[in-house]
Write a structure and sequence with these properties.
D-Maltodextrin-Binding Protein, domain 2; 2 domains; five-stranded mixed β-sheet; 18 helices; 15 strands; globular
């Protein structure tokens, strides 16, 4: 004989099951994330958001993208109003004054300051902390390395397996590679910096410049070391004649095997191979001024941060996931975005890759931008280089003007 199920006994079990099923939905936290848009980056973020939500069903990620040109204004207006995003991807140089606007520190229940300093390379961390408290994690970093074409080395009688080891050798190799026609026009260029600001700052750092006056709390381009780095870059054009700005795009020249060496971000690996998959090139860390000298480069960095309106623990979980070893490995493979965790940098497969090995080492030696004014990188350094190579200003006058512009820009952002 079958026994009837009594409603009185069934009811508590049904209620418990319904509550359990509803719990994730009832407890779900939404994190609105803003970042500037690009097709490859947008797709990576979509993939990462989906992976995060699968691992954290109680947190929903909503991605919103904006053109870079309008991004900063939108971030500032919305943070001030207490609206808009919960998490943002911004330039690391913005973090100090965004802290003053109320950025939340990363939740130590998720990741601690000690863990960050132990697990990430030190270069990109400078602007992300205050008084030992971290407000962001670094992302989207780029060091500076030297790309070179071994086949052009061989044609010039150089060993294609041996890149230049000093500044003097950079000039020597470039002279042997550089070619002109009967009229003196460049048909093959030896080396290029392009007057690109991170490269110029890298050369100054290698020469021993700190580019920052700790006592004044302002940029410092007044030192002999800063002048030496700038002079090396401009002499390639004006003295040695191995870089010719009239030759056109250095990227086009390198792709067409008409440029022996180019100082560039490692991100150009993917760019070169995307358009010229059979291009044969190699990479070395930036050669030092002298044997045994500095191979440090400037590192430019973005950061993931949390606004005042965010739910602290959930937002920090999302940020920590974005810069987890798992996510850094994915982004390196998907787009060439450089890892910043020691664990990923030291992956045997990265160190065994002939292109990635020098890039990984460059990250361990990199030095972050010391100032917070974007104009110094975006405008002033390149303008100083152009004023010298176009013979509008001598080196001392150009460096003096650079110093004044840099100080004015830094003061204008209130730091």
């Amino acid at each position: 004989m079958r026994h009837a199920i009594r409603p009185k006994r069934l009811l508590p079990a049904v209620i418990a099951a319904l509550l359990l099923a509803a719990a994730p939905a009832l407890a779900q936290t939404t994190i609105v994330h803003w970042h500037h848009t690009s097709p490859a980056h947008d797709e990576m973020m979509r993939v990462l958001a989906q992976r995060f939500m699968e691992q954290n069903p109680d947190i929903r990620i909503e991605l919103e993208t904006f053109p870079l040109g309008e991004f900063l204004d939108k971030v500032l207006v919305n943070i001030a109003a207490g609206t808009g995003p919960d998490t943002v991807q911004v330039r690391s140089t913005w973090i100090p004054w965004l802290i003053d606007m109320g950025l939340q520190p990363l939740d130590p229940r998720v990741i601690t300051a000690d863990e960050i300093t132990a697990e990430f390379v030190p270069g990109p961390l400078k602007h992300l902390q205050r008084d030992g408290v971290f407000y962001a994690l670094p992302t989207g970093s780029q060091s500076v390395v030297l790309f070179y074409q071994p086949q052009l080395f061989e044609l010039a009688g150089l060993d294609g397996n041996t890149p230049p080891a000093t500044w003097e050798e950079v000039v020597e190799y470039a002279r042997r590679i550089h070619r002109t026609d009967a009229q003196g026009a460049t048909i093959q260029m030896g080396v290029a910096t392009g007057g690109y600001a991170p490269v110029l700052a890298t050369l100054m750092i290698q020469a021993g410049a700190t580019l920052w006056d700790d006592e004044a709390g302002l940029p410092d381009f007044t030192t002999p070391e800063a002048a030496r780095g700038m002079q090396f870059a401009t002499d390639l054009v004006t003295v040695h004649g191995v870089e010719d700005p009239a030759f056109g795009s250095r990227w086009t020249a390198f792709r067409n095997e008409r440029l022996g060496m180019v100082y560039a971000h490692p991100g150009m690996i993917g760019s070169f191979l995307a358009t010229h998959p059979h291009l044969q090139f190699r990479i070395t860390e930036v050669p030092p001024p002298e044997p045994g000298g500095s191979r440090s480069s400037l590192i430019t960095t973005w950061a993931f941060a949390m606004t005042p309106k965010a739910e602290s623990e959930a937002a920090t979980k999302w940020i920590a996931f974005l810069e987890s070893a798992e996510s850094q490995r994915y982004r390196l493979q998907a787009s060439g975005e450089l890892p910043l965790r020691w664990e990923v940098i030291q992956d045997p497969e990265n160190l065994a890759d002939p292109l990635l090995n020098p890039v990984m080492w460059s990250l361990t030696r990199a030095v972050e931008v010391p100032w917070t004014a974007d104009d110094i990188i975006d405008s002033h350094l390149g303008a100083a280089w152009r004023s010298i190579i176009n013979r509008q200003l001598a080196l001392p006058a150009a460096m003096e003007r650079l110093q004044q512009q840099a100080v004015n820009s830094e003061l204008a952002v209130g730091r």
